[in-house]
Amino acid sequence: MKFNKITATKNSSYRRMQRFMKEFYFRMKIVSSLIFILLSAKSDLVLVLDRTNWKFGTKNSNILMLGVSYKNVAFPLMFKMLDKRRNSDTLGRIDL
Q1: CA angle, 27 as apex, 65 and 92 as ends, to 5°?
Q2: pLDDT per residue over 53-78, tens digit each?
Q3: CB neighbours of 77 closer than 8 A, spacing ≥ 6?
Q4: What's the pTM value of the predicted model, to 2 decimals?
Q5: Which positions, given as ranges, span the membrane (predicted)?
Q6: How many CB atoms neighbour CB 77 within 10 A?
Q7: What is d(CA 96, CA 90) in angstroms, rounded to the nearest whole number?
């Protein structure tokens, strides 16, 4: 049996993933566990904490993100949307 190779553009594949992700709720704990399972090495991991703030129209987006870095690639583990424009405080970082 011969199958014809069907190719999709990057944009259509990306849009398909967006539609898939929109329909499902992923608990951060499950996603974090999956990332650690998929990482081949359990040593040389570095936890990274980052915050970004940007404006889309009139809406401010301020995100505090915890990730793990492995071989110079950071994988997001969990995040928290902050309700203010300025930096997070120590209690907010501990909470995450």
Answers
A1: 35
A2: 887 777 777 888 888 888 888 888 88
A3: 28, 31, 32, 35, 66, 67, 68
A4: 0.55
A5: 62-79
A6: 19
A7: 10
Amino acid sitting at position 74: A
Q: Tens of pLDDT along 21-37?
A: 777 777 878 878 888 78
Structure tokens at 15: 């849009």
Q: Kindly report the CA angle at 68 between 50 and 80, in degrees rounded to 5?
A: 45
- 17 by Cβ neighbours in 10 Å (0-12 / 13-18 / 19+) ranks as exposed
Locus of tokens 């995100």: 63
What is the rounded CA–CA span in Å between residue 77 and residue 70?
13
Residue located via tokens 């970082």:
93
User: What are the structure tokens assigned to 20, written together?
Assistant: 């898939």
Q: Which residue has the tokens 């011969």?
A: 2
Task: Tell me the β-bridge partners of 53.
Answer: 62
- Half-sphere exposure of residue 65, counting CA atoms within 13 Å on the CB side? 15
Which residues pair with residue 48 across a beta bridge? 67
